């Protein structure tokens, strides 16, 4: 397994942990951890798994190179997408939920009321789709109207017209939709720190 020893050391330092803390959690000596971080000890899968556990990082996330995706806006309580506010992140790590995470984008959820506990969660979807794929009908989607505005909702066809259903507010009737991309996952912010 080709992993740089520097990546191990950087992960530990990023978490603010000492060699002594890692050694204690791994139940090995400090010199053994030093040799691992200096590339002087063979890195086995068992040792890597123990090190990642001691540092508090996911082994899969550590092995895979992170893919950063744009956060395109904030979803408010009416499910409309608003511009990001100053001093908020404009990108996030993509979860490994699809084989091609490079196509993902995210929106940050800022709901109020009975679903306020979802505030800060990230909703992931495929960006830059045109039209409405067959599998998007009746699914929660990131929707771009033909006027360029965006919202989250469920595209529905009824009586030859396209509507947007939403559990947070009244549906929109007879809407021209430029694109609809199903929401693939909604995840809490602590997973991306």
What does this structure look like?
This protein is an alpha+beta fold and 193 residues long. The protein folds into two domains: 5-63, lambda repressor-like DNA-binding domains (434 Repressor (Amino-terminal Domain)), CATH 1.10.260; 68-192, Umud Fragment, subunit A (Ribbon), CATH 2.10.109. 22% of the residues lie in helices and 28% in strands. Strands 1, 2, 3, 4, 5, 6, 7, 8 and 9 form a nine-stranded mixed β-sheet that branches. The radius of gyration is 22 Å and the shape is elongated.
User: What is the molecular shape?
Assistant: elongated
How many domains? The number is 2
CATH topology of the largest domain: Umud Fragment, subunit A
SS strand fraction? 25-35%
Radius of gyration: 22 Å
Sequence of secondary-structure elements: HHHHHEEEEEEEEE
Structural class by sheet pairing and helices: alpha+beta
Mind telling me the CATH class of the largest domain?
A: Mainly Beta
Question: Main sheet, how many strands, which sense, barrel?
Answer: 9 strands, mixed
Low-confidence stretches: none
Number of beta-strand segments: 9
Q: From the 3D coordinates, which CATH architecture of the largest domain would you assign?
A: Ribbon
Q: In summary, what is this structure?
A:
It is built from five helices and nine strands. By secondary structure, the chain is an alpha+beta fold.
List the helices and strands and how they pair.
Elements: H1 5-14, H2 19-26, H3 30-37, H4 45-55, H5 59-63, E1 68-75, E2 81-82, E3 91-93, E4 104-109, E5 122-126, E6 141-145, E7 150-158, E8 161-165, E9 177-187
Parallel strand pairs: 1-4
Antiparallel strand pairs: 1-2, 1-3, 4-5, 5-9, 6-7, 6-9, 7-8
Helix pairs in contact: 2-3, 2-4
């Amino acid at each position: 397994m080709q992993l740089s020893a520097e990546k191990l050391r950087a992960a530990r330092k990023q978490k603010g942990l000492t060699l002594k803390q890692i050694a204690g959690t791994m139940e090995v000596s400090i010199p053994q951890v030093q040799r691992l971080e200096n590339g002087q000890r063979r890195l086995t899968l068992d040792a890597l798994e123990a090190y990642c556990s001691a540092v508090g990082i996911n082994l899969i996330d550590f092995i895979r190179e992170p893919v950063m995706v744009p956060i395109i806006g904030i979803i408010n309580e009416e499910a409309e997408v608003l511009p990001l506010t100053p001093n908020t992140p404009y990108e996030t790590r993509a979860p490994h939920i699809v084989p091609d995470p490079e196509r993902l984008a995210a929106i940050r959820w800022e709901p109020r009321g009975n679903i306020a506990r979802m505030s800060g969660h990230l909703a992931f979807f495929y960006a830059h789709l045109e039209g409405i794929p067959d599998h998007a009908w009746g699914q929660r989607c990131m929707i771009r109207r033909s006027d360029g505005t965006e919202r989250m909702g469920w595209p529905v066809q009824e009586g030859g017209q396209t509507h947007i259903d939403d559990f947070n507010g009244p549906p929109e009737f007879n809407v021209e939709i430029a694109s609809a991309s199903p929401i693939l996952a909604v995840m809490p912010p602590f997973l991306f720190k």
